[in-house]
Design a protein that fits this description.
2 domains, mainly alpha, 0% strand
Length: 141
């Protein structure tokens, strides 16, 4: 039963595609019957499940890319949260720009690799930057 996790993943992707394509019950069952020869995804073999996914893609479904995992360390999460708050105030709010800022502050190329002490330096720098931007906005009003 080594293929069970793969099968569950296939079934999950089919159900995600159905939801994202906003297919009603009849349309969904029609695709399953036409491509997989069954009206139930659970009754279709793995090869046919792959063909059903291919049919959904042919019909216009574009699978979403997996979302980035949340950082495990609280200090790293704080860096990303502050960067998100600062994003409207900077010309380049990309993660590459954050990495460059982190490298200038600590010599470490990524916030995820910072020790708590190094992250503190980055956090304080971002907080000061955000305070300057908010003061600049207040002065402009």
């Amino acid at each position: 039963m080594s293929g069970a996790p793969d099968r569950r993943a296939l079934l999950a992707r089919i159900h995600i595609a159905r939801k994202e394509m906003a297919l009603d019950e009849a349309s969904y069952r029609a695709v399953l019957l036409r491509v997989g020869k069954h009206e139930s995804a659970a009754a279709i073999d793995d090869a046919a499940l792959h063909r059903v996914l291919g049919e959904f893609k042919r019909l216009g479904w574009v699978p979403q890319k997996p979302r980035a995992k949340r950082p495990a360390e609280p200090h790293v999460a704080k860096i990303y949260a502050l960067w998100g708050a600062l994003a409207p105030h900077v010309t380049d709010a990309s993660l590459g720009a954050l990495s460059a800022f982190c490298r200038r502050q600590t010599g470490v190329a990524s916030p995820a690799w910072c020790s708590p002490e190094q992250a503190n330096a980055v956090i304080e720098g971002l907080k000061a930057w955000l305070a300057r931007e908010k003061a600049r906005e207040a002065a402009a009003e």
